[in-house]
Write a structure and sequence with these properties.
Layout (H helix, E strand, L loop, with lengths): L1 H22 L5 H11 L2 H14 L3 H43 L13 H50 L5 H29 L11 H19 L2 E5 L11 H18 L5 E7 L6 E8 L6 H6 L22 H11 L4 E5 L5 E8 L4
Parallel strand pairs: 1-2
Antiparallel strand pairs: 2-3, 3-5, 4-5
Helix pairs in contact: 1-2, 1-3, 2-4, 3-4, 4-5, 5-6, 6-10, 7-8, 8-10
Length: 361
């Protein structure tokens, strides 16, 4: 009896090893599952049959062999159905992935029955949703950029045709031509900076103190603020931690926020730069607040979108800009590991705040 048991155990190990090798031979998961599902239930059947061939001596032993054979057959059928359910779910995921790769970004993978397939399907659907949103933003970006470039180009063409026809002397349109070229140069520079942010080619390395950067920004906009009769001020604590950001990036963010605040602050108003951050705080919070009319619900939701402008009727000549300044500010802040948000002030006006990681001491 002991010898028979040892022989059956050895046979089971040999058959299991052979099945493992055979199951790894097919190149497809379907083939591996089919081999495994068919072969594994045959191991106990083979062991029982081998043992019975040695030991059976009655009809009762034959009945035991019949039960074993029926059980193994049921196990094979169940294993095949299980393998089919796995491969069917993977096939749906594959079809969805191929459709998304072909450009059908609206496709979504069906949620599977198992937790693992459900997680993969949800991740694939999230990727498709992000890709669809990215392509929509790209189409909108191309449309708005074309629109904002077409306007100065049309103006330049009209002025050059007038000069070419001798209707006006060249010096008559020279200032206007300079202004239109400057407008296109600013837009192209903004688009290039957005492309750099999207490609992650802007280096987030560097440390800087905020006091000199804030003073430089206020000094650069002092003349425009005086012409609009708007007061500029800074309220920064004397001991403010350094921030992990290049000075040029902080300056660009502050200039964009200050320019936008100047555009929406009436005469005799004020704009202030406020900063706070303790010595042991992980980040520094910088806020640009004004005494304007505040932000509408739509502006609060969309003001950081590319090419979005609160007043679509405004043109670049009227100070409306191309609608890229706040988008660039958001990109720079988030690229350096910070966050940016806008809100209405309790006493009137609006404030835009952003955070930057504090430099380690």
């Amino acid at each position: 009896m002991i010898g028979v048991a040892l022989s059956a155990t050895a046979l089971a190990f040999v058959l299991g090893a052979a099945i493992a090798i055979a199951a790894s031979t097919p190149r497809t998961l379907r083939g591996q599952l089919v081999v495994f599902a068919v072969a594994m239930p045959l191991v106990p059947l083979a062991v029982v049959l081998a043992s019975g061939a040695v030991m059976f001596d009655s009809e009762h032993d034959l009945a035991v062999l019949g039960v074993a054979a029926a059980s193994s057959t049921a196990a094979v059928i169940g294993a095949l159905r299980f393998a089919r359910s796995i491969t069917a779910g993977l096939g749906q995921l594959r079809a969805t992935a191929l459709g998304i790769a072909a450009g059908r970004l609206s496709l979504r993978a069906p949620v599977g029955s198992s937790t693992e397939l459900t997680d993969v399907a949800e991740a694939l659907n999230e990727m498709a949703q992000n890709l669809e949103r990215l392509f929509d933003v790209r189409r909108e970006l191309v449309a708005w950029a074309s629109h904002d470039l077409r306007t100065p180009l049309s103006a330049l063409q009209a002025m050059l045709e007038a000069i070419d026809d001798g209707l006006v002397p060249p010096e008559h349109y020279l200032p206007a031509i300079h202004e239109q070229v400057r407008a296109m140069a600013v837009l192209i520079d903004d688009l290039f900076e957005l492309a750099q942010l999207d490609a992650r080619t802007v280096s987030p390395d560097g440390e800087t103190a905020l006091h000199p950067v804030v003073e430089t920004c206020l000094r650069g906009l002092q003349a425009e603020a005086a012409a609009r009769r708007v007061r500029l001020e800074a309220r920064l604590p004397s001991h403010l931690p350094y921030v992990q950001c290049a000075p040029s990036s902080v300056e660009r963010v502050l200039l964009n926020l200050l320019t936008n605040a100047l555009r929406h602050t009436p005469s005799d108003g004020s704009i202030a730069i406020v900063a706070q951050g303790a010595a042991d705080a992980p980040e520094v919070v910088v806020t640009v607040e004004d005494t304007g009319n505040g932000l509408s619900p739509q502006a609060l939701q969309r003001m950081f979108e590319r090419f979005w402008r609160a007043d679509e009727a405004r043109t670049r000549d009227g100070g409306g800009g191309a609608g890229l300044g706040l988008a660039i500010a958001q990109g720079l802040v988030e690229h350096h590991g910070g966050r940016i948000w806008a809100e209405n002030r309790v006493g009137g006006g609006a404030s835009v705040s952003f955070t930057l990681p504090a430099a380690q001491a």
